[in-house]
Amino acid sequence: MEMIYLLIKSMILGIVEGITEFLPVSSTGHLVIFQNLIGFKGTSPNYVEMYTYVIQLGAILAVVFLYWGKIKNTLVNFFPQKVGYENSGFKFWLVIFVACIPGGILGVLLDDLAEQYLFTPISVAITLFFGGIWMIYAEKKFRDNKLIGEELKVTVKQAWIIGLFQCLAIIPGMSRSASTIIGGWVAGLSTVTAAEFSFFLAIPVMVGMSFLKILKVGGLSILTSPEIISLIIGFVVSFIVALIVIDKFIAYLKKKPMKIFAIYRMIFAFILLGAGLAGLF
Q: Looking at the chain, which runs of residues are DSSP E strands?
């Protein structure tokens, strides 16, 4: 019976991850909350932490699946001599690499501190609220509602700006997606271009972070059989749900603003703050 409960909870968290990973509402913040809410835990040390990063890989795999045509094209046309620098895979992955640098450095320096002091429902609620206010301000000030083509064209300078904004995602509740999309606005990108760049940027960032975290907590060998099955279920569910969410999210951004997500963050923050102060978490 305990195994059945563990698997059901894993499915719930897989759904939460698949929905929230690419929306600007903080997947990590939602996972922290729902893990507390449903009492998700295992018998192995650091199981919950490992689970969080493994199911994120499922959501990232959805990006690879949906955008495989683009990824394959960058690999086939990697060398500039063949198609020119601007259209080359080399340039595409160069700007991705540049955008990874700030977060990679600060992540190594500050990640443990964030885990130690900020992974609580109340701190997540506060970040969700003020992040929502910032989203509304940034969209009003920087967003260009006119779509600029469909090609994902990002300069090295724009990538660096986005990378700096991505550093904010170290704070649980801020949202990597929200940070990078706002960074894209500030850098002069359209919303759709910023969102798609955020998706591609998530591939090396989340894959690298997830594998480092898995190794840090001891690898899969420390888990029991039910825990491994739970990981697989959460991975698959997050992958399937993310496939649907990514497609719907891009379609939404082509027609409507992101204000609704900011309002959701603020309402959810008040609910979490009230629950936290009442001792429910």
A: none
